[in-house]
Amino acid sequence: MNHIKTAIVLFFLPLSHLLSQPVSAQTKDSLTWYTSLTQANEVSKATGKPIFALFTGSDWCIWCKRLEQNVFAKPEFVEWAKKNVVLLELDFPRFKQLPPELKAQNQQLQQQFKIQGYPTVWMFFLTMDEKAKRITIDPLGSCGYPQDPQPGKEQIKFLENANSILLNKKTK
Predict the structure, then answer these.
(1) Most confident of the ranges 8-17, 19-28, 68-77
(2) The CATH number of the domain where 17 resides is what?
């Protein structure tokens, strides 16, 4: 049996901006979506679940809205997310204002992950080194809106993609 292992890619982020983020979370469809990387990481460390970071343009991106409606709002995704990941929303709105600290955090992560389109999901773990003032990101993989899903089957295709990414966690 062939096992494909993904190389661990490390990104280093200065802690100064990211550790000072206000604690923030919102509940949608009975799921908690954190907006603070620091808080999401605390939950990730406590549960052993990877962070599921959604890069989104919540108030303008049609594909982001479709992902929300056709995948995230479905009971199958809600059950899967509660069991497997810590949700982090990294929003890039055009019409609403984000607090400056949150905007800076989201932009820094967008640059680190080289996000070129929305929606994009990255799953990863963080290691915070307080002494060196760095964060190491251990990415598991990324996905977006499912390519060419059958109507009504978007959540199935998305969860297949997400589960294949979670397999990277188990092979490391």
Answers:
(1) 68-77
(2) 3.40.30.10
Give 164-172 contacts, CB < 8 A, sequence gap 24+: 165/123, 165/140, 165/141, 166/50, 166/84, 166/123, 166/140, 168/5, 168/6, 168/140, 168/141, 169/50, 169/123, 169/125, 169/140, 171/3, 171/4, 171/5, 171/6, 172/5, 172/6, 172/8, 172/138
**Token couple for 8:** 């661990």
pLDDT at 81 over 80: yes
Q: Please give the Cα distance from 154 to 172 (Å, whole number).
A: 28
The reply to whether 172 falls in a domain is no
Reported pTM = 0.83
Range of the domain at 138: 11-167
Q: Write the single-letter amino acid at 121.
A: V
Is 4 part of a structural domain of the chain?
no
- Helix/strand/coil (H/E/C) assignment for every residue in 31-98: EEEECCHHHHHHHHHHHCCCEEEEEECCCCCHHHHHHHHHHHCCHHHHHHHHHHCEEEEEECCCCCCC
**164: Cβ–Cβ under 8 A, 6 or more apart, which residues?**
141
